[in-house]
Amino acid sequence: xxxxxxxxxxxxxxxxxxxxxxxxxxxxxxxxxxxxxxxxxxxxxxxxxxxxxxxxxxxxxxxxxxxxxxxxxxxxxxxxxxxxxxxxxxxxxxxxxxxxxxxxxxxxxxxxxxxxxxxxxxxxxxxxxxxxxxxxxxxxxxxxxxxxxxxxxxxxxxxxxxxxxxxxxxxxxxxxxxxxxxxxxxxxxxxxxxxxxxxxxxxxxxxxxxxxxxxxxxxxxxxxxxxxxxxxxxxxxxxxxxxxxxxxxxxxxxxxxxxxxxxxxxxxx
Amino acid sequence: xxxxxxxxxxxxxxxxxxxxxxxxxxxxxxxxxxxxxxxxxxxxxxxxxxxxxxxxxxxxxxxxxxxxxxxxxxxxxxxxxxxxxxxxxxxxxxxxxxxxxxxxxxxxxxxxxxxxxxxxxxxxxxxxxxxxxxxxxxxxxxxxxxxxxxxxxxxxxxxxxxxxxxxxxxxxxxxxxxxxxxxxxxxxxxxxxxxxxxxxxxxxxxxxxxxxxxxxxxxxxxxxxxxxxxxxxxxxxxxxxxxxxxxxxxxxxxxxxxxxxxxxxxxxxxxxxxxxxxx
Lengths: 269, 279
Fold this sequence. Notes:
A: 269 residues, alpha/beta, six-stranded mixed β-sheet, three-stranded antiparallel β-sheet, B: 279 residues, mainly alpha, 2 domains, 11 helices
């Protein structure tokens, strides 16, 4: 098992409950999409899966270990094996693209290697390979503040691919991308998972993308798992029930400016 | 706030009362401080005082420029610069580890939060107390103590600056780092990165400019502090000012003041260049 939640619950310090009695098992190499209305608890669920948030109830098994029973050193080692694509790319604008990507392996590097890479990028070839997968191989030595929001998000994806995690978690990885780029980025994430055997769990706003790229779909609403089905078994009725009262299931929206799409075609698209 | 809004409690800004209270408290507390400091701006505008001031100022012209004095001035300037630079360099070495320990956004145990959180909190509080202790005694007092202990000379000034400025730099470094967006650093810690790696790849790119500008400004302050410490026997320009005032040679004081001006302009230029490089 790559990930196992045993009836976990999360109550935030302000008293708001984010998850209630969530039971979920994800086998190694499996690909799962989390869908549900905004505020359903998808991000919280992913943070628990990344050992970044400790559930207030229930137990977590992550890559064969109980993260919250580990020593801080072992927990650090476990976290280095988990990749996370954040919804807002957590990359300082003044960092160069190459450095931002190399930061993906900080958990695996010694302090000396990290500092060397900070001063002078050590593995530029590796960073370039990861960037080429998201269509940004040419921007290696640009500064991140010269990129558009969508390009920055792709740099964040490249960082996570460069990390080579055994469990790849993605929180709305393509919500800032236009439809074509979103599809291409998901293809890369799925491709990485099938090539390396890594588990992939992604929350997605766009239901069509979830159904297209993921064999297993988990519907979350109000902190509770509503359904956990093969993609083929997700019926329009179930989706309607999941999103009842919300603006409705989303579809991939073009957000990135067309100019960027024209100048920066994806290598794989 | 409109009347209609005031009547509806759910629309009332919960922060409004607190903000107003603090604004009033600030004025009430500051007013007596102004009186205590005998701050009377009107005196400066009194025409009777202007004449006295004018005569006083004329005495300081022209600046002294004889070769012997200029040589002495150069020596003293270099000594003051050396005291300030060595003092700030030592202070930097003291401040960096303290600041890293005190910065909340670099806490690994805050993720989760893990069990080590309380230990981290106690450690951070301890470090902050150390920082307060270091800067609670003015550098001039340290300098007096060190002059007693190690005799007259620049070493006393360097040590005094290192302690006080170490505390100041650590405090402000930690605050600048905490004011920066914590998410990049936290994402790196979340992916198993270490504290120093998260600092370099996550926080410094956001805060470098401000950190450098504050450090150069502190170096400028250290030059002034080194001058003041010269009065108590730590050498440099301060000693020269002391001599000029005691011997009442106003022209020399003017020359020395021109050197101060040049030094501050130098610090300004360095800061500008460094910030341009980092921007």
